Amino acid sequence: MAKKMIKGECRLCLKETLLCESHIYPKYFIKQTRDKIIDNKFQYGSNIKVKVPPQDGPKSHLLCKKCEHIIKIYEDYYKDFFIDKRNITLTKLKSGSIQIRGYNYKKLRLFLLSLLWRLSISPINDWQIKLNKQDQTILRNHILNGVPGSFDFFPFYTFLIHIDGINESSFFMNPFESDSPIKNCVFLYIFGVLYIFSKTSVNDKFTKYNMLTPEKWLCNIKNINDVPILMEKIKSINF
Ligand SMILES: [Zn+2]
To answer: How close is the Cα of 63 to the center of ligand 1, in Å?
Structure first.
């Protein structure tokens, strides 16, 4: 079936052309979640049932075909990496953290940055975040030119979330913003991993600890009860 295209300015390359219906979050996110849905609800842990995103996921006319392809390369990489667990090694450290190695730093980081950027230009309620214009432009240029930046560019750290002792890796939710634990941060919760991102390209409140570097990525395990803000959000989901 032909996809609906309309004329407009591509948000990534800024050319006036035909625009695709771009997914704010990759389509496979939805599929991954859909496999575990009963009666339009996702069973999260033993006692939480949450409503799920629309059938095809949030989308809007944002990108030209060429730029869709740029982003798809990063999306595909994340699927290989995180869902299919291709080529990565996970080691549990004495500290309890999980150390991840063997990833493609450039593609992984650009995927995460592209998600942040797409949310910042998204017109869809519940699937958008606010970035200041200057940082949004910096982010756009990085994605367009394939420059991942170093660990402290739009810094983020991550937690692997456990509920009832298990990491639920089939669930994702809409982003939310907070000034806690760090001012100006945004929470992206994707397949059992909580990403806490800075909403600004530079943020010295984030320390190097636990960041994604070209060599390794440390992820602390946290019980969901120890992250009340996430628990509250999950319970309140009403897409
Ligand atoms: Zn474009």
So the answer is: 5
104 CA to centre of ligand 1 in angstroms: 24
**C-alpha 17 to ligand 1 mean position (Å):** 8
Tokens of 128: 């958008």
Measured in angstroms, how far is the CA atom of residue 18 from the centroid of ligand 1? 9
Q: How many whole angstroms separate alpha carbon 49 and alpha carbon 38?
A: 10
Ligand 1 centroid, distance to 83 Cα (angstroms): 28
Distance 16 CA to ligand 1 centre (A): 8
Distance between Cα 86 and ligand 1 center (Å): 30
CA 182 to chain centre: 18
- Determine the Cα–Cα distance for residues 179 and 140; give it in Å rounded to an integer: 24
Between the CA of 67 and the centroid of ligand 1 the distance, in Å, is: 4
Query: CB burial class (10 A; 0-12, 13-18, 19+) of residue 36?
Result: middle
Nearest to 33 by CA among 235, 201, 170, 145: 170
Q: What is the pTM of this model?
A: 0.93
Contacts of 84 (CB under 8 A, 6+ apart): none
For the chain, which residues make up each domain, given as ranges? 6-235
Q: What average pLDDT values come out for the chain (239 residues) when binned by 10 residues?
A: 80 97 89 78 81 78 96 94 84 91 94 97 93 96 97 93 88 89 91 93 82 90 92 81
Q: How far apart are CA 168 and CA 193, in angstroms?
A: 9
Do 193 and 235 touch, CB atoms closer than 8 A? no
Dist. CA 133 → ligand 1 center (Å): 19
